[in-house]
Specification:
Elements (H helix, E strand, L loop, with lengths): L39 H49 L3 H11 L12 E6 L8 H12 L4 E7 L5 E3 L4 H6 L2 E5 L2 H10 L3 E7 L16 E2 L2 E2 L14 H17 L3 E5 L2 E2 L2 E2 L1 H12 L4 E10 L2 E2 L4 E2 L1 H9 L8 E7 L3 H10 L4 E4 L1
Parallel strand pairs: 1-2, 1-15, 2-5, 3-4, 5-8, 8-11, 11-14, 14-15
Antiparallel strand pairs: 6-7, 9-10, 12-13
Helix pairs in contact: 6-7, 8-9
Length: 351
């Protein structure tokens, strides 16, 4: 009789005490490896990914560095360009100071200045609202200098002077009340302050001080236009002019435009300025005013145009040493600036 087996083949290799757990798996899962398992293909891919990321980071760093360097170079070039522009179009005050430093052994009277200036009312030297308006207008118009009448054609004084002779004469009229402060502000705003003096041509002082007056016999000398003059050979008259120059120089004026230097057919500019430089200081620049005008009227067309402007400028007398054009015109800067530049006129004042 055949013996009955305890285990059947269908239950072989199983334990009756274990409960079957888990889930059915497919063929591919038999060969999958978890994260803890070493897999050379996964490692190779990770290595390639890390190397690529490192290269990408390095590339970005290089690109950032390159952009930074380019920005610095552009900024540097911009500053250099600005410096070159400022040097080529130097404000006259800065240029004037540089010329002084570079000319230790030369007289200031031999220095040449370049500037575009304009004449302003003396009363605007108030150190306040009127002066600010003058500065703003000068910058807007591209001016580099501002001239005011310290001693006018009529002989009156246009700034708050403390000279006893001026007070005694009562010569102050419509004057700027804060000259020292105003002159300092002009310099701080890159504008060259210039004082104009009608030195001998004077229609005020001779009638009030016979000691300084130029006379013809016992009467005041008068030219064909009826103007009176200070006596160029009179030491009192010279001292009056010298004291005005010295006072303004103490306020900060280093450039003076002298007008009314001719008496009759004699020009006293050279004689006067040599004495002034000796007595008032070698660091003062004196320029003789050459008065010209630009009307722009073209006779052929009967209109005001560029041809008329060029014709007027062509008639300007040639400047000699220590001279400057003082131009009277009703035209805007755009009408004459280019024509002046083409004629290489680099120092002038619009009156």
């Amino acid at each position: 009789m055949k013996r009955k087996r305890f285990y059947k083949n269908k239950n072989r290799n199983t334990k009756w005490t274990e409960t079957v757990t888990g889930r059915p798996i497919d063929f591919a899962e038999k060969y999958a490896e978890d994260e803890s398992t070493d897999n050379k293909f996964v490692k190779a891919y990770s290595a390639r990914s890390s190397a690529f990321a490192a290269k990408e980071r390095a590339r970005k760093r290089k690109l950032t560095a390159l952009v930074s360097v380019c920005c610095i170079i552009l900024l540097f070039i911009g500053f250099i360009g600005a410096d070159v522009h400022m040097i080529r179009h130097a404000e006259p005050l800065e240029r004037f100071n540089n010329q002084v430093k570079e000319s230790e052994y030369d007289a200031m009277s031999e220095l040449k200045l370049s500037f575009y200036g304009s004449s302003v009312p003396s009363i605007s030297l108030d150190g306040s609202v009127m002066l600010s308006s003058v500065i703003d207008e000068a910058h807007k118009d591209g001016r580099t200098a501002v001239m005011f009448d310290a001693k006018r054609l009529d002989g009156t004084i246009g700034y708050a002077s403390s000279l006893s002779a001026i007070s005694a004469l009562g010569a102050k009229s419509e004057f700027g009340r804060k000259p020292a402060e105003s002159i300092k502000q002009l310099g701080e705003n890159d504008l060259l302050p210039i004082a104009r003096l009608y030195v001998y041509l004077d229609n005020f002082t001779p009638s009030r001080s016979s000691d300084m007056a130029l006379k013809k016999g016992k009467k005041l000398y008068r030219d064909s236009d009826g103007n009176t003059y200070l006596d160029p050979n009179n030491e009192i008259a010279y001292g009056y002019i010298r004291n005005i120059v010295t006072e303004l120089h103490a306020f900060g004026i280093s450039v003076f435009v002298l007008d009314g230097c001719e008496v009759g057919k004699t020009d006293y500019f050279e004689t006067l300025t040599k004495k002034l430089n000796t007595d008032a200081g070698e660091d003062i620049k004196f320029l003789k005013a050459v008065n010209v005008s630009i009307k722009g009227y073209d006779a052929e067309s009967g209109n005001i145009n560029s041809a008329g402007v060029k014709n007027d400028i062509s008639k300007f007398p040639k400047l000699e040493n220590n001279q400057v054009y003082v131009i009277s015109t009703d035209l805007s800067k755009s009408k004459y600036a280019s024509a002046l530049s083409k004629r290489k006129i680099t120092a002038y004042i619009i009156d």
